[in-house]
Amino acid sequence: MIKNFLRQEAKRLYPGYFALVMATGIVSIAAHLLGMEVPAKALFWLNMVFYVPLVILLSLRAFWFPASLAEDVTVRGTQLFTIVPGTCVLGNQFATIAGSPAIGHALWIAGTVLWLALIYIFFTGAIIMEGKKAPLGKGIDGGWLIFVVGTESVALLGTITAHPGQGHLLLFAFSMYLAGGMLYLFIMAIIFYRLLFLPISPEELRPAYWINKGAIAITSLTGATLIEDAPKWWFLGEILPFLKGLAFFFWAFATWWIPILVALNAWRHLYKRVPMDYDPAYWSMVFPLGMYTASTFMLGEAAGLPLLQDISGVFIYIALIAWVFTFIGLFRRVALRFFPGKSPT
Length: 345
Known about the structure:
There is one protein chain. This protein is mainly α. The chain has one domain: Alpha/alpha barrel (Glycosyltransferase). The protein has helices at 2-12, 18-33, 37-64, 66-74, 77-80, 83-96, 101-127, 136-139, 146-161, 167-197, 211-228, 234-238, 240-271, 283-303, 306-338. Helix 10 (167-197) runs antiparallel to helix 11 (211-228).
């Protein structure tokens, strides 16, 4: 009975469900930064409840359905890659909220190994793919920026868990920070072309486009953390003005996205009447809200700009409300699956 249940769940597992861990983790971290310890710790414990079963189901999927997992890695790689930032964000929670940097470092190692395996398998396979590739209008959306999020999450957790004097680890984290920023510029240029010059339907304007904002917000957060941790390594101190300018540059563009994404969301749901039924992809909308809150607070602290911290004090409530409503949608979906004849209240 249990085996059949697990087999069924592993077979139908949505490969992008680690976005739930990403969103829950970063909202928890943002709340912690702003001194809201009750929701921060509650979401931390809840995130472990999410992460462990997802890892188990993914492992069972690999064992029972290796062909499906192979498609997750190649065809649906932009969804499965959420496991990298999901792992690293949970590690960040352990290091900052739980005060367990050793567990955080272990999760950083796991996230780095996953990053190395998944990103190079996917990009190599996409380049040498035989047959006709998907046209630009169908082949790319904001979901591709999860590769930026994953790269920056490895850089961020590596910076947090590195000890003073571990220049080799901080050099790796700094290099990943720059690589993630460059990836954003490359991928974002293509997404801009797709949005501006190719027709897009309301149904195609999926929640994944919110990662446009989340990817550059985590890049800003990584830069702010490198500024804060500059005393750990002399080289970071030497380039501190560069780090400050670059972090603020990324934060400014993350801020620029907010009105556009709100307007596009209103056009999709209010004008075009696309229903807001629960979809796992909606966690990709919650994550940028939490990430923008955390990056704004940290940049304000690192650069000595209290106004930014005031802004984050507003956005934390937006992020928490978005998390609650999305979680209610998840709860209703699960309840309807197990009790199809009843309507959950």
